[in-house]
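Two proteins follow. First one:
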Amino acid sequence: MTGITLNIPLVICQVLAFVPAIVLHEVGHGFAAYKLGDPTAKRQGRLTLNPLAHVDTFGTVIMPALLMLMSMPVFGYAKPVPYNPGYFKNPRRDDFLVGMAGPLANLLQAILGSFVAFALDLTLGNATGMAAQLVDSMAFQYFYWYFLPLYVMINLYLMFFNLLPVPPLDGSSIIALLVPRKHLGTYYRIQQYALPVFMLLVIVVPYVLHVNPIGAYLDVTAGTLGNLLYPHELF
């Protein structure tokens, strides 16, 4: 039986990149809802940056671990931030804005990671003394060559994955613009419980049928944008 060999530093970098990506994604949803008049997330303590408040056993732990073991793009989800469209002045428009706030948070993080990489690129060649020793350290090498590229790509994977217009992903908020007002309550209830089922399909279908349309979509979208943003070719 062939054992699975894990690159422990790489796994650590993946975890450290993944956690802020999903936490800020969910906080983005909650903050947008709060600014639009809905206090639900704030009352339930979900505007915090504490990862423990956002952990979902399957989406935050089990699924990313399975994807790592299967050498697939690492993404997942945190416990969805609750919001009540009944507080919104314009439920259709505001639901769309809340839905887009999560992917926007991921895009901003990807831009930040790329900016840090560009800034380091400009200074590495001129490093002397203690700075040069820091650059040569193993910790810096893992940060520069592993963490930063992973941070950018994981955020882009999360952004483009969530932009798919399929319930219950964030892109489905576009659908809410078309659902008759009297059916919005039912639509929101279905959306709340559909995510685990959908994510299981995302993992099982490629494994069983050996066809991975989601992976191809992420390569074209996240992969292309990542290589445009980042100073070096990504993975």
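Second one, unrelated to the first:
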Amino acid sequence: MKLLEQIWIVIIMNLRSIPQRFGMSVATIFAVAAVVGVLLFFLAMGNGFKDTLEGAGSENVAVVTRVGSQSELNSSLSREQVNLLSTAPGIAKDLEGNPIYSGELYVIVDGYKKTTNSKVNIPMRGLSTEGFALRENVDIIEGRVFTPGRNEIIVGESVLREFSGFELGTKVTFAKTTWEVVGIFSTGGSAFDSELWADTRTVQDQFRRGSSFQTMRIRLETPGDIQPLINYAEADPRLNVKIETEAEYFSTQSNALNNIVVFGWIISVVMGMGALAGALNTMYTSVAARAGEIATLRAIGFSNISAFFGTVAEAIILSLIGGATGIIIVYFFVDGASAATIGASFTQVVFSFTLSADLLQQGMLLAFGIGIVGGFFPAFRAARMPVVTAFE
């Protein structure tokens, strides 16, 4: 009999005997499912957060911040700097020949989570009407745009979904000033949906920011080409600024969640050790229960290799079932779920957990690895089973 046929026969026999170890087999499956589920939870969190931030970035727009600042919150630009940069080469012009740019403010206001009623930081952005043209897919889905000079705000749809008190027509108080929600906007699920928007000059006045800004956004004449702007800024000592494309800026911001992804792997590895112990216990029990059966097969001509691979295959199959179970649980209960976490500017960023084919593959590879390691040593024991055991 060929070796592959022997291995196949042993695998079938092992699987048919699983009901004899049903409890331990189910425990192994659910242990692996828990490991894979936890890993995918953290990876889906990181994936969704990254997609939300990078979805806000564009190669057509440059972001200007103060040199040394890590985010918009700790940046500062004077009106003079904004005016100087507006004359730089490489800036796209509108039909009337005016440069397309927006000086913006980024302040923190209080909000309350709907789920816990806990106080959180929500970003409020002051921007001009030109700021709308510098963002793709901005859509007013309810109400209208704020009127310049009035204490009016429009609210991102993610803010409305996660935090209370921002419904259309609601009046909220920030910095001892009452603001009215006059519109709800959407940018297609990007990080901007986690913000409140108001008129720049009004935000400057109400938050006592004088004529200062924190960032400047510029429409590029050539997408991705920021070198003319950089050269211009470097030639003027008054422009102590950092210039990068919006895509680069948000890509850097998304790195803030890398530690959470690493933490997810660490937790999964620790839990994986427990699942591995369960798999080893199950497979050693399987080999012990079938000691006579394995020895009999050896006595009638089955090779020790078939016993080895048959036992490893059983462990792999149990682990893969566990991995698939974990994926199904995460898919139905986590994928697409909305959550909020603190971003680089210490404000809430609302995002959705996002599973991808790559993440599912990582989950199954982890399950496969647990099966390989969990089955190897019991399989080695099965392969060395003495033939004389069959006659005891």
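SUMMARY FIELD: The first helix runs from residue 3 to 16. The mean pLDDT is 83.
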